[in-house]
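ok trying this again, last paste got cut off
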Amino acid sequence: MKLTIVSGRSGSGKSTALHALEDAGYSCIDNFPIDLLQPLMRNAIDRGDADQPHAVCIDARTADLDGFPATLVELDRMGVDCQVIYLDALSPTLVKRFSETRRKHPLSNAATDLKEAIDAEQTLLEGIADLADLTVDTTHLTAQALIEHIRDRVIENSRSGLSLTFRSFGFKYGVPVDADFVFDVRCLPNPHWVPELRPQSGMDLPVREYLEAQPLVQQMYEDIKAFVDRWRRCFEENNRTYLTFAIGCTGGQHRSVYLSSRLGEHFQQSIDSGIVLVRHRELNRS
């Protein structure tokens, strides 16, 4: 029996994620009470619906969030294959989304403004965020990009192996909140200072050839590759399902893109099971 729990702050894209799961054949319920999770799964098992995947949304509107960890333990004892997906975005982005849609935040009232409600919601959901199998930063994601992300990392993942994501980014735009490990490659030679390479990216052959000729770049690649290869096995043995490695340079255009792409290519060929994804945050944003 498979259960996916979607949670996160209001405005982070939970409804979009839930709709993507529903379109993929999941039985979905929004704003679901925690204390009804066990009865829901027990009834599904009794009906013989073990092959039907379920998804529920649990957020700040749900009572008794303190009981979430104990509920996960009980679901595991029932034999439920449960994964928790936590969506979030930077607070200024959430404020902007609410301002544009003119929706009322569930925690706002006469004494609490929108920014205060969003910050309070983060504190309220900390217990769920800490237990998440996958955290998705939707700050720079469109609705369609989020749907594709859920499809790639949740729906298409058979859970037969570890799902690895290599994400390039620019430090000038902030560190991705969904990163499990962050590698800073700003110490490497920068193609930005080569005039003919500046308008290109780490996906283009001239930039790749320039970086491949730099000994420091090759040493960084080998070190990160060895780190990922060693520690992904430990996480996989510990039943970890998702790992995101964020690789950042200054603007997220050259060095981080090259290294993320090359690491993704290597692990796509070297692992027997699981999913390997490569995402370039600043290129997508552009």
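PB: full thing came through this time. The chain has a mean pLDDT of 89.
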